[in-house]
Amino acid sequence: MSLEPRPAAPPGRSATRGRTVFAALAGVLAAAAGVLAGELGAALVSPSLSPVSAVGGAVVDFAPPAAKDWAIQAFGTGDKAFLVTVIAIVIALLGAAAGLLELRRAGLGVGLAGLIGLVGLAAVATRSLSSAPAWVCALIAGAVAMSLVRWLVGRLRREATAGTAHDAAGARPASMEPSASVESPASVEPPSSAEFPTSARPTGPVPEGWGTARFPRRGFLRAFAGTAVVVALGGAVTAVVRGASLAAAAAREALRLPTPADPAPAIPTGAEVGVHGVSPLVTANPDFYRIDTAFVVPSVDATGWRLAVTGLVDHPLTITWQELLAQPLVERYVTLTCVSNEVGGTLIGNARWLGWPVRELLARAQPQSGADMVLSRSVDGFTAGTPLEALTDPGRDALLAVAMNGEPLPPEHGFPVRLVVPGLYGYVSATKWVTELKVTTFAADTAYWSTRGWSEKGPVKTASRIDVPRRGTRVAAGDVTVAGVAWAQHRGIALVEVKVDDGAWQPARLGTGISRDTWYQWAASVRLAPGQHRVAVRATDGDGQVQTPNVAPPAPDGATGYDIIELEAT
């Protein structure tokens, strides 16, 4: 019987691809485990600052202003969810890269995982809430990721090598394989060990392209699956523990708010125009917009809260939560607006706030001559620079607010205490989780957004918005009701007008309004012939200033222009 040599078998490309895929997945799993370890530790010992929240906060702080503006305009109050998604994707990609590097050469992937941990550690160091426990959590996250990359991918490499050597030891040389002409394979005897000595078997690292049908082997798969289960359970535990730690803020529900010494005025008759779809006069707490720099809502214990008044004052002082609640609190309706609100945008809301006038606290501290700004500081490090005159003006209800629409401040809106200042955009006035009021000057200090291209004083501009009909909708030709809201906080609204296409401005029916510090509802009936139309609105404030038609973006001091919608009448 003759034996014909056969060409060598092609490299095991599928097995090589399998190792590559599992190495990448192992890296992703290791990165996820590291993140969860850091988050779980933070939930236990540092609930207000974790490695992920530190990275998110650092991204918010150091991102170019244009990128922040884009995120707010594109995602609105979902900007932080978008950032979380981006961070998760980046971490997953870096984890996959660590796994692949570790497969190529032991130690490279571990080094990349360590670098990821150092980034988290550096981010923690930049936060105002940085503490020893937060640093430890970042170190734990990096250590867990490094250990798992080394263990999982190392096991993958070892089993791949062992599997290839095992198969090679039991294989026949290509020259001894029977040819296709052999009629009875059973008649061919296997080669003896002398014909295929042990010294000829492959040894050492797995050559590129080698693989076996038995790869990946069961040992690695068990390790991978077991780790995945632990990570999943860890994620569930982390969610429960973090929820429990943040639920400390839920203790606010048990707080008994003091009766206001000066209640809010009743909503006047005629304030509502009675048109379905118009923004309500009072915005419910869950619907109130949220724009701030806190990646994770700070969990602040009200009983330990303190507010310090420092800087250019004759009598620096500190007030506690109990002392604040003991003051004669007042209740006021105030509309807050974000400077990032586009023309026609929704980053605005009106609420009933309970608090103590800031001017009374500052009167105790006695600001010194020459001071013109109060730098308010949040527990998360955010700062806002408010003109001193706006906080000491006896005709302006600037408050240290403790309640919103009859309940303690929701955590995301500043519990336990925040600033509410009528007539100023939030970036220069509405500091949440406030812990310090530093009396200073605009020349000596700069606030968070003032160093990022925004103007220093931020007075709210006269604006109006069309709520109904929705832009781009079809309406029946004839008389059509157009309605919405208008605002010019601390000046009030005197007149709202609408215009169809190039026609004349016509006055709208203006709601009474709660006060000059809130928005006003308005409605008008316009006649539309069949076809396409453009409807515009403009407002005139209580000082007689007509809303400008000049179109400008939010930066650096608020958007301007008319809100214009396009309709099709049929």
Order of helices and strands: HHHHHHHEEHEEHEEHEEEEEEEEEEEEE
Task: Say how many strands there are.
Answer: 19
Helix content: 25-40%
The radius of gyration computed from the alpha-carbon positions, rounded to a whole number of angstroms, is 33 Å
Q: Count the DSSP helices.
A: 10
Given as residue ranges, the uncertain stretches (5+ residues, pLDDT < 50) are: 5-11, 171-215
In terms of DSSP E residues, the strand content is 15-25%
From the helix content, strand content and strand pairing, which structural class follows?
A: alpha+beta
Major beta sheet summary: 5 strands, mixed
Choose one word for the global shape: globular
How are the strands of the biggest sheet laid out side by side? 2-1-10-5-6
Report the average pLDDT across residues: 84
In whole angstroms, how far apart are the ends?
A: 92 Å
